[in-house]
């Protein structure tokens, strides 16, 4: 991992192959707390990055996730009125 210690020196567009400390598409159980199944229905884990790659003072993983988009419509379309919508009407 020493040659990749500081990602700021290595722009992400130049990275190829397996990179120690970066794990693409991690298991949902490694990313989410319980109830894992609930979160995995709504979010797709994209990558886990060891924070020590970014700064020596940091440690632990950070997970990047994306919402699972519905086939038709928009995220949250059928969820009813949100807190922010109710507050805007008050």
Large-scale geometry: elongated
- Number of strand elements: 3
Structural class: alpha+beta
**Average residue-wise pLDDT:** 78
Strand content: 15-25%
Terminus-to-terminus distance: 54 Å
Describe this structure in words.
The chain is built from 3 helices and 3 strands, in the order βααββα. The chain is of the alpha+beta class and 90 residues long. The longest helix is centred in the middle third of the chain and has 7 residues, at 36-42. The mean pLDDT is 78.
Descriptive keywords:
3 helices, 3-stranded antiparallel β-sheet
Q: Which helices and strands occur, and which strands form pairs?
A:
Layout lengths: L21 E3 L3 H4 L4 H7 E8 L10 E7 L15 H7 L1
Antiparallel strand pairs: 1-2, 2-3
Quick structural gist:
This protein has about 90 residues and is of the alpha+beta class. About 20% of the residues lie in helices and about 20% in strands.
